[in-house]
Write a structure and sequence with these properties.
Layout lengths: L20 E5 L11 E6 L2 E10 L3 H4 L10 H9 L3 E4 L19 E3 L9 E5 L17 E5 L11 E5 L9 H12 L1 E2 L2 E2 L6 H43 L2 H9 L4 H32 L13 H31 L3 H4 L4
Parallel strand pairs: 3-7, 4-6
Antiparallel strand pairs: 1-8, 2-3, 2-5, 4-7, 9-10
Length: 340
Amino acid sequence: MGMNIEHCYRISLGELQPEAATISSWNSVPYSLGYSSTTIDYDTLSQGVRRLDASPDYFRVFRIQGGHGETPEQLTRQLENGQFFLSVNAFDTYGLDVTSLVGKDNFHLYGNPDRNNRLSGTFQPIRPNEYKELNSESSKCIFFKRSQSSNYLGTSDCIVVRVRADQDHDFIKNLTADAAKNLQVGNIYISDVQSIQDMKRVELQEKDQKTMLFVFGMGFLLLNIFLGLLGTFWFRTQQRKCEIALHLVHGASRRDVFLRLLCEGLYLIVLVTPLAMFIDFQLGYNELNARFDGAYLEWGRFLICVGISVLSIAVMMFVGIWLPARKAMKIEPAVALHGE
């Protein structure tokens, strides 16, 4: 062969793909059981917002989209030369479109009216957890850029990284083992590694348990209401066997009889619903119900609840009429009228 290949190995070279990593304050990490807020003023408008402090790669780590549809990479580059971002819903209370204010420099931070600050960009609202809505106060955020070359990392700071999916195997175990050997700089060391998914489970555990209690309670009430309404319409229809027989004797079809009974039930629902809506509206308007996410009465939620309630009652009424009516119409009219 003209060559010797014993004890020879081929080592191929490859280029590592850059991973997203951000230096962040603890309160800025999702599901960190922490919360930081501040106030931002624009002209005469003042708004409380949730504060996020991190290096620009924060948008790449958590794949946050821009207010004008910018990608996380575009937001990161945009913030390199900027100062702060706002979520697009920051001034929704005033009906103000924040995306139209990018580049404006008449923003005031920390209640200081003497210094003007320029808005560098906007991003989509960030919900603190699944139990908060996009229009809630805690979803209105301000993002401050933190220098990646910061000379100080305190116990309230952390580094958040996104690991490639094909490399996310025993990441915590492997990193912890490496940290014990050679990942210490001066007196700074890695004290703990947590998965954001695990942090999510911890934060939502109590809320999930409370929700399940509500669900079981609601199910129990629905079952009782279902049986009550079902029994009422069932008994009412059962007592009208003779009337059903008379309709059939006089030439009415079974379909006509059933529609008559069904329309009577719907009439009762239509008759009572406006009164129930009026009472429920008064309860909400006078703040006699529980406060929900900063609001006592939302028209959208109110109408959805009314719709679900009416639909549920209609289903109970339909079953309560259909079953006994179907059974009664199978009986011969002469038999049904025998007792008269």
